[in-house]
Amino acid sequence: MIHINSANLSVSLLHPLEDRSKTGSRYCTGCYIWQVRDVNGHCLLSGPHFPSENPAPFDGQGMPEVFEALLGGDEEPVGAEVCVIGVGMVKRTSHIEPFHPRNNPHVAEPCSWDIEQAAGCVVMTTEQSYKEKSIKLIREARVDGKRIESISRVQNTGGRDVTLRWFSHPFFPLNSDFECGKISPDAILQKNPGYYMGTGGKIFMTEYFPWRRGLFQLVEVPNVKLNFSIPHPIAGTIKMQTSYSVIRCALWANPNTFSFEPFMQRVLNPEETFEWQVTIEF
């Protein structure tokens, strides 16, 4: 693990090489925040199998992030290798279309990351290529007081456009009243079996839903930067913000955790660079 600290928080990140048993094909391996602890050592993040110390890499823990769009290889047949941004070369083992890293777990060749670390900051950099497409990806995690920033910067270094389709997947602990929190500007939650909208736009989990299976539910949001106000059993209320306009947002939960998933999409022209971030304040 790699650790960075502030006066209020201790942040543990997976080392892309030394912690490969905890990574896989689904989540970006650079600056993968695994856990955040307060000054009393309390864990502030959760996961689908928390408090297991060795959850399946597919499910993960903490504040993972997902690049859904491939750098290249979308049309490759089963048995071929494709390029997953932030992960590396992944063997296509599933016939499921469209390709998604979650259905193809075998990493044939992981990314190589350059790592720079200071007291409150880690920067990891990798370069990836697939035929005429090339990128430089810089991932950065910062902690300052009670504030954590997860920053991504992608530079298109190749000769063709690159599509970025990405989302943040932070896992939060459940509250006694099953409240997930509020999204601003206001969100719309369609009728569904597991979640409901209470007073003031607060979203709740239905207590008697069979949560063991988990439930994914889209939440209708405007295509703007979003703010999340999330009740926390230890920290009180935490705030999450996106620096980018969210193209869609989802909610996922099971008996151990829930997660808001704000999605971003962008097309980078050759030589173009785009930077975005998610901020959480405990």
Main pleated sheet: 10 strands, antiparallel
Radius of gyration: 18 Å
On the 0 to 100 scale, the average pLDDT is: 96
Structural class: mainly beta
User: Strands of the largest sheet, in order across it?
Assistant: 8-9-10-11-21-18-17-13-15-14
Task: Tell me what portion of residues adopts beta-strand conformation.
Answer: over 45%
| Contiguous uncertain segments of 5+ residues | none
Number of strands: 21
Q: Sum up the overall morphology in one term.
A: globular
Query: How far is the N terminus from the C terminus?
Result: 22 Å
Order of helices and strands: EEEEEEEEEEEEEEEEEEEEE
Helix share of residues? under 10%
Number of helices, counting only DSSP H or I runs of 4 residues or more: 0
Describe the fold and architecture:
The chain has 282 residues and is mainly β. It has a domain of 89 residues. 0% of the residues lie in helices and 46% in strands. It is built from no helices and 21 strands. The strands form four sheets. Strands 8-9-10-11-21-18-17-13-15-14 form a ten-stranded antiparallel beta sheet, with no helix packed on it. A five-stranded antiparallel beta sheet has the order 4-12-20-19-16, with no helix packed on it. Strands 1-2-3 form a three-stranded antiparallel beta sheet, with no helix packed on it.
